[in-house]
Design brief:
Length: 248
């Protein structure tokens, strides 16, 4: 299969922990600009797949390419982050004692930033960028609020905003709506669809209502490989998916 026009290309990837194959001959391809939802039972290897992409775990075998040409198996975590792969873990890790704006400012001045080299203080360009991000993450009226005072869902959005501040090409988002209210969950689907207009995104989720709202191609992992892939309707109708996951 051709790697051109792919943002992420995994082929024949395997990794074992103490003899247990957590990822087993996994092949998964994401086109540039695509958003993909990944589902599958606990222990299917969804988070481990993200660990491999971000360089946290090195595969035993297989190809992992970013942007059609960069061999990620030869890069470390810091290099991979610098190249533009941003990851959001399940638990929000915002700075609680700082305002929403300061959290975003800190992220904006992070390692991938163009700002520290060009400006000393908060510049007009930085303020505009923060305005943009606040709009995307639905926190336009919370700029001065301490992060500690945000709801769980709003903290998740702030952390997504901090990722956006680093201007990633590919975002990996692991279980973003766990613990959110129904209203926050629906807003998160809209938020990610907004982001997906100019980023490639992989979202891992167990919430099928949320996955349906996303309206994107779905990959179901099981025992470290792809069990089924296609529209949510196609994947949900797959008897093997019902057996190992949806019908539990
Ligand atoms: N660093 C590690 N050391 C040992 N075993 C690991 C490691 N990382 C993952 N595993 C094992 O690999 C398997 C896949 O785990 P993983 O966390 O990727 O599943 P998951 O699909 O994300 O599940 P969940 O839906 O529960 O988050 C599990 O059996 C897990 O215990
Ligand atoms: Mg997981």
């Amino acid at each position: 299969m051709s790697k051109s026009n792919t943002i992420l290309y995994l082929d024949g990837v395997s990794v074992s922990f103490d003899g247990f194959r957590a990822i087993n001959n996994l092949s998964l391809v994401l086109d540039k600009g695509e958003m993909r939802a990944i589902i599958g039972p606990n222990g299917a290897g969804k988070t481990t797949m993200m660990d491999i992409v971000t360089g946290k775990t090195r595969p035993d075998e297989g190809e992992v390419f970013f942007d059609g040409q960069v061999d990620l198996t030869r890069r470390d975590e810091a290099e991979i982050a610098m190249m533009g792969i941003g990851r959001k873990f399940q638990k929000p890790t915002v700075f609680e004692s700082h305002s929403v704006e300061d959290n975003l400012m800190l992220a904006l001045k992070g390692p991938r930033s163009i700002f520290p080299a060009l400006f000393h203080r908060s510049s007009a360009a930085e303020t505009r960028r923060i305005d943009d991000i606040l709009g995307i993450i639905r926190l336009g009226d919370k700029r001065e609020e301490l992060a500690a005072n945000l709801s769980h869902g709003q903290k998740q959005w702030l952390e997504i905003g901090m990722l956006l501040a680093q201007d990633p090409k590919l975002l990996l988002v692991d279980e973003p709506v766990a613990g959110m209210t129904d209203a926050e969950t629906e807003e998160t689907a809209r938020l990610l669809k907004d982001i997906a207009r100019d980023h490639s995104v992989i979202v891992v989720e167990h919430d099928m209502h949320f996955v349906r709202e996303l309206g994107v191609k779905v990959t179901c992992l099981h025992e470290g490989s792809v069990l089924s892939e296609g529209t949510l309707d196609f994947v949900s109708a797959d008897e093997r998916v019902v057996e190992v996951y949806l019908g539990r």
